Amino acid sequence: MSTADAVTAAVAAVTDPELRRPIGDLDMVRGITVDDGRAHVGIVLTIVGCPAAARIESDVRAAAASVPGIRAVDVEVGVMTPTERKALTEKLRAGRAPRRMPFGPDSLTRVILVSSGKGGVGKSTMTANLAVALADQGLAVGLVDADVHGFSIPGLLGIPAGTQPTRIDDLMLPPVAYGVKTISIGMFLRDGEAVVAWRGPMLHRTVQQFLTDVFFGDLDILLIDMPPGTGDIAISIGQLLPHAEVLVVTTPQAAASDVAIRSGLVARQTGQRVIGVVENMGAFTLPDGTVVDLFGSGGGAAVAAALSETAPTPLLASIPLSPALRAGGDAGLPLVLDDSDDPAAVAIRELARTLATQGRGLVGRSLPMTLG
After folding, report:
1. d(CA 114, CA 206)
2. Cβ(43)–Cβ(11) under 8 Å?
3. Whole-angstrom Cα distance, residue 339 to residue 230?
4. CB-based burial of residue 71 (10 Å sphere; 0-12 exposed, 13-18 middle, 19+ buried)?
5. Backbone angles phi, psi at 122, to 5 degrees
6. At 351, phi and psi to the nearest 5?
7. What is d(CA 163, CA 154) in angstroms, rounded to the nearest whole number?
8. What residues contact 128, with CB distance under 8 A and at least 6 apart?
9. Residues 182, 175 contacting (CB under 8 angstroms)
10. Would you tell me the crossing angle of helices 343-356 and 123-136 to the nearest 10 degrees?
């Protein structure tokens, strides 16, 4: 292999951080020549002002410089023409028509809705940490923040305010945080906006666009952080994703668990399958060994028992109350990565392993674990 061919191969293997594919496969590499140890590399970005431009250029320069015999690298950066962008979006869709939802019953992606009967039970914090734990196990994970009125996922994942998806024609590329591709209405608000005062039709359209216009690529799992209760969005997602699975989050107290049962029952009315219950803010142990059940006990088991009257519904995990879990959410640093020894982090990681091996949607992908 000539030195120029070696440089071409090295540059082509560089991964686009947004599309998560080699730039060679995305037709982003242009003419490469080598002259007396100096490599001249041409690449094109998808759009003007591509947010990943600096990283791609740096990675391309490093890849070319890693080839034996290369002493200097020149990188020329251009932008795709409209025709080239159209060809790219068609390749990314892999034959799927524009604005067609890719997460139907025949998809290999497992869709899991994380729901709760009421707010304040830590559902979004649980969803964010669970997504990161799954991604840390090597799975391709997407996360849709469907809690339009109470969106919090960007903050929980440390996505800076003002971050927006990159647009390639009619495709939106979601920001990636801790390996999780994420979309939220909070990424679309103008400066100074903090409230979304929408009713049914707008909410339905927003969720539908998140599922059709956002390019997640090939996912193993798509988590959807649901709004609390059984309102418009729950009904819309029931219509759009009747095959989805549902994870019900509650706290141990009866005030939360009684309402959580309803969210599971409504999900079943749309044909969705409740795969289990997660009890959050459970009993925790003080350094002296004292066990404190600040929010009571038994709520998760009660929800699982009530839902099991119509179909087996296990209590998958009880997550102990953890100040560190709350602090990590406020800081945008998921506890499952920041302090993996914290009892709450240990329980969430175990929950992630349980879900990853549970079954539907993962068979057929190359995964780093044995599937059940």
Report:
1. 18
2. yes
3. 34
4. exposed
5. 85, 20
6. -60, -40
7. 9
8. 143, 153, 156, 157, 225, 329, 334
9. yes
10. 70
Q: Does 48 or 363 have the greater pLDDT score?
A: 48
> What band does 362 get if pLDDT is binned at 50, 70 and 90?
very low
Which of 126, 152, 149, 254 minimizes the C-alpha distance to 207? Answer: 149
Helix (H) or strand (E) holding 4: helix 3-12
- 291-292 and 284-285 beta bridge pairing: antiparallel
**CA-CA distance, 59 to 28, in Å (whole number)?**
13
The string of pLDDT tens digits covering residues 276-295 is 999 999 998 888 888 888 88
Say how far apart CA 222 and CA 216 lie, in whole Å. Answer: 9
User: Stretch 304-327: mean pLDDT, rounded?
Assistant: 94
344-351 — which CB contacts under 8 Å span 24+ positions? 344/319, 344/320, 345/129, 347/317, 347/318, 347/319, 347/320, 348/126, 348/129, 348/130, 348/133, 348/317, 348/319, 349/133, 350/317, 351/130, 351/133, 351/278, 351/316, 351/317, 351/319
Give residue 175's identity as a one-letter amino acid code.
P
Q: Are 19 and 165 in contact (CB under 8 A)?
A: no
CA–CA dist 329, 370 (Å, integer): 31
| pTM, full prediction | 0.84
**pLDDT value, residue 371:** 29
Per-residue pLDDT tens digits for 100-124: 788 888 888 999 999 988 888 999 9
Amino acid letter, 65: A
Which residues, other chains included, contact 341 with Cβ-Cβ below 8 Å and sequence gap of 6+?
A: none
Instruction: Extract the tokens encoding 223.
Output: 């988590």
pLDDT tens per residue across span 205-223: 888 888 888 999 889 999 9
- Phi, psi (deg, nearest 5) at residue 309: -65, -25
Which amino acid is residue 312, in one-letter code?
P
**DSSP symbols for 163-180:** ---EEETTEEEPPEETTE
Residue 51's Cβ-count burial label (10 Å; 0-12, 13-18, 19+) is middle
